[in-house]
Amino acid sequence: MIVIYFILTVVVLALGWGIVMYNRFVSLVNNAKEAWSDIDTQLKRRYDLIPNLVETVKGYAAHERETLDAVIEARAKATSMQIDISKITPEQVAAFEGAEQGLTSALGRLMAVAENYPDLKANQNFLELQRELTDTENKIQAARRFYNGNVKDLNVAIQKFPNLIIANMFNITEMELFKLGENEQAAKDPVKVQF
User: Fold this and answer.
1) Contact 176/150 with Cβ under 8 angstroms?
2) Does 24 score more than 90 pLDDT?
3) By percentage, how much of the chain surpasses pLDDT 90?
4) I need a labelling partner for 81 at 20 to 30 A (CA). Which of 8, 12, 36, 54 fits?
5) Closest-CA residue to 174 (of 29, 24, 75)
6) Cα-based distances in Å from 35 to 41, 63, 110
7) pTM for the full model?
8) Domains in the chain, please, with CATH?
9) What is the DSSP string of 103-136?
10) What is the structure's pLDDT at 16?
11) For residue 194, is pLDDT > 70?
């Protein structure tokens, strides 16, 4: 009789542990999805600011058409990226990172061009848009760090034994971190503008 109670106790404890671990994975996955949506929210804000910034610069720097076109094209490419976080793949994250890196680079060139126009630098609309864009860029970086932190927590939990048993049973897979991508060094280098 003691053996039966012992076996029942072990089964109940194992079942309880499995339920607790599954619920923890559900929380971790949803935290990562929420963090990705924070990135989306900040990127939407960035995409909305860019046309206003480009139009303001256009009035002062009409001959800088190539730089303005590059920003517009990079924004269009970045906004066309659609990622379903519930079915995210490393390839989708890499493509998304590439589009965002292109937009960041183009914006850097635009800001460097703006530095050459004293009247533009004094324009209140431009200054406000530049401040808003800087604030948004900081929020995007914070959202990316928050996402990566949540993904790291999920991935570590999945990799640990015996958690990986529950993760495998319920097909809970690791998620991809948000990185700078292939152009990591280019993203760190200062933007160079030559006339």
Assistant:
1) no
2) yes
3) 23
4) 54
5) 29
6) 10, 40, 29
7) 0.66
8) 2-188 (1.20.1440.20)
9) HHHHHHHHHHHHTT-HHHHH-HHHHHHHHHHHHH
10) 92
11) no
3-state secondary structure 34-69: HHHHHHHHHHHHHHHHHHHHHHHHHHHCCCCHHHHH
Average pLDDT value for residue range 133-143: 88
Identify residue 4 by its one-letter amino acid code.
I
Nearest to 58 by CA among 131, 122, 110, 107: 110
- Look up residue 12 and give its two tokens: 């109940």
- Residue 75's nearest CA partner among 38, 46, 113 is 46
Could you give the maximum distance between any two Cα atoms of the chain, in Å? 90
The identity of residue 121, as a single letter, is K
Residue (of 193, 192, 140, 150) closest to 175 by Cα position: 150
